[in-house]
Structure to design on (607 residues):
């Protein structure tokens, strides 16, 4: 079930280094929200705070609130492991488990909760999920082959399948197409358009056209200079951000006049 | 700038004589190294076979006359002795491995994925130090400190579990008692001074633990962060992440490390020698608590070699050949296990 996310006054640290400062924004359910901004402005750092993956890095910590349908994911009684079961993630580089088959990769998350999945049920889930990820037709004859035997674009769709197999509420994607060719990129953009019917999607992208094509709302992050924290500059409907941004920095960035 | 490249002949533009020489030189060097290993292996095998042949082909009674440790053997034949030593070697090395491998994996995982950084560094250092202790020291420690210390425990295990054939001591007496007017014969078992296969296995386990730990730790540290994060992002706990990403990825390395440990256990001479004091003739005892019942090939060679005549040396080399074959077989088995799933190794 898609859920909304409200971020209040979020700071993200790597040790003493403040990488992202004072971010407050809202992410609507059943929509695609794009995060754009120059390299190093903290897009990856920010998106990883939403599923509590940020704190996996030694020394990294977060201040502030991330509310999912009103519940603070950083509340005292919240288990980060449980958060990550509700907020799935797709990474920049496709990372299917090389030691698992294609089918096992799809089932990896489900098997964590449910060791003894009956075979027919498992097959059903594999097929349904791979269809949802627009990958079924390409891999249905080689489900027992290693995940690493696929092309980059197929691997990334396999990773999306792996993420949606556990039926998360939110899917985070950190530059999911930056390692892919244009055709694979299109396949994934199409997939996002389908997935937003059921999921809340947040995507980091370097590609302005992609943000314009796939997202409903866009947040622009910027950084004042090296060693300074990244901040949210503005967030609005994607059409507004790309036609009439409120801030000069946003306009400079989207028109390529970024210095 | 375009004219400069156009003027040059294509062959010239792409020629790279210096790099080519280095390239070929290095290829030759590494090929040479690989061939050297194969040649060494072949030379060792040839040597073993050649030197063992006199004993293997000799008439059994001639052989027994010439080799004094065969004189008192009931069968006066070499083969049963070799077989019993192979048996003892396999039992003791397997015990060592069965104890050391899981413990090593656990320590390696703790160091690589659980311990705080400073503690991990300290622990790793201690483990490496353990690897540097010579085996004589382990042997002395085992014989004079460790075995006396665990003797009560061995005796307790024997008393509690001697209904299991493989945890039974040696029969030292029989007692006859009258129960309801019937004579009942009970056997009295003993683990002696504790110089049993299990003790040797434990000390060997401690000896091979550092090498297995050190290698598996390195392997576990190599797990790509990419795959660890993939598991965590699916909602895996740390242990689930280890089961999903770290162990499958490290499996070939774990097997390799275990083989290194097994190699050391199979070939270990001094420690086994000092712990088992193997003067008595080994037997095919399945009990790891039976004293003076087992010996290993390596320890036996060390024991008999100084006083052996030429036929005796040949007989001992025949045992060495058996050890060589075991080692080779175990390594080939390991290779096969690794290659079976090489597609899934993550190496591509
Ligand atoms: N693991 C890390 N440890 C320390 N600093 C980091 C780490 N990852 C990123 N940073 C720093 O945090 C800032 C934001 O990085 P990142 O979130 O990766 O930016 P983006 O994804 O927008 O390119 C950068 O200054 C970067 O150097
Ligand atoms: Mg990034």
């Amino acid at each position: 079930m898609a859920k909304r996310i409200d971020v209040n006054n979020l700071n993200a640290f790597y040790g003493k280094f403040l990488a992202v400062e004072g971010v407050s924004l809202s992410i609507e359910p059943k929509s695609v929200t794009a995060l754009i901004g120059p390299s190093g402005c903290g897009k990856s750092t920010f998106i990883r705070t939403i599923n509590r993956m940020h704190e996996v890095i030694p020394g990294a910590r977060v201040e502030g609130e991330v509310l999912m349908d009103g519940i603070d994911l950083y509340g005292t009684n919240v288990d980060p492991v449980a958060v990550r079961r509700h907020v799935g993630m797709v990474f920049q580089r496709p990372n299917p488990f090389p030691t698992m088959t294609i089918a096992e990769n799809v089932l990896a998350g489900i098997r964590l909760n449910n060791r003894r999945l009956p075979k027919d049920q498992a097959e059903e889930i594999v097929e349904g999920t791979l269809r949802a990820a627009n990958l079924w037709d390409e891999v249905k004859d080689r489900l027992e082959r290693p995940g690493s035997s696929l092309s980059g674009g197929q691997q990334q769709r396999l990773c999306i399948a792996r993420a949606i197999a556990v039926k998360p509420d939110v899917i985070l994607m950190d530059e999911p197409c930056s390692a892919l060719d244009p055709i694979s990129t299109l396949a994934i953009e199409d997939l996002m358009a389908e997935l937003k019917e059921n999921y809340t999607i947040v995507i980091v992208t370097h590609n302005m056209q992609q943000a314009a094509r796939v997202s409903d709302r866009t947040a622009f992050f910027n950084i004042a200079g090296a060693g300074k924290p990244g901040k949210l500059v503005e967030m609005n409907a994607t059409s507004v951000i790309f036609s009439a941004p409120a801030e000069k920095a946003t306009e400079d960035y989207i028109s390529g006049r970024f210095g | 700038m375009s004219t400069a490249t156009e003027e040059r002949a294509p062959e010239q533009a792409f020629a790279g004589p210096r790099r080519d020489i280095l390239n070929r030189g290095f290829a030759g060097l590494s090929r040479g190294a690989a061939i050297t290993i194969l040649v060494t292996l072949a030379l060792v095998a040839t040597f073993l076979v050649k030197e063992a042949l006199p004993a293997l082909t000799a008439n059994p009674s001639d052989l027994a006359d010439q080799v004094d440790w065969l004189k008192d053997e009931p069968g006066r034949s070499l083969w049963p002795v070799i077989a019993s030593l192979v048996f003892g070697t396999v039992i003791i090395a397997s015990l060592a491995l069965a104890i050391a491998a899981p413990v090593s994996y656990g320590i390696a995982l703790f160091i690589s994925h659980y311990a705080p950084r400073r503690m991990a560094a300290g622990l790793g250092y201690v483990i490496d130090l353990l690897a540097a202790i010579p085996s004589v020291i382990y042997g002395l420690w085992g014989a004079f400190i460790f075995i006396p210390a665990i003797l009560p425990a061995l005796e307790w295990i024997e008393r509690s579990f001697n209904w299991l054939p493989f945890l039974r001591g040696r029969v030292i007496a029989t007692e006859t008692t009258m129960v309801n007017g019937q004579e009942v014969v009970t056997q009295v078992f003993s683990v002696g001074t504790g110089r049993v296969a299990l003790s040797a296995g434990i000390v060997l386990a401690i000896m091979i633990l550092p090498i297995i730990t050190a290698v598996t730790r390195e392997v576990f540290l190599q797990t790509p962060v990419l795959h660890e994060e993939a598991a965590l992002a699916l909602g895996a706990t740390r242990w689930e992440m280890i089961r999903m990403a770290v162990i499958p990825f490290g499996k070939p390395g774990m097997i390799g490390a275990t083989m290194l440990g097994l190699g050391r256990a199979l070939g270990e001479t001094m420690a086994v020698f000092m712990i088992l004091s193997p003067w008595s003739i080994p037997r095919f005892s399945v009990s790891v608590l039976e004293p003076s019942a087992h010996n290993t090939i390596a320890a036996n060679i060390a024991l008999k070699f100084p006083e052996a005549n030429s036929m005796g040396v040949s007989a001992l080399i025949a045992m060495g050949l058996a050890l060589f074959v075991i080692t080779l077989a175990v390594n080939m088995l390991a290779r096969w296990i690794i290659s079976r799933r090489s597609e899934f190794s993550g190496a591509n």
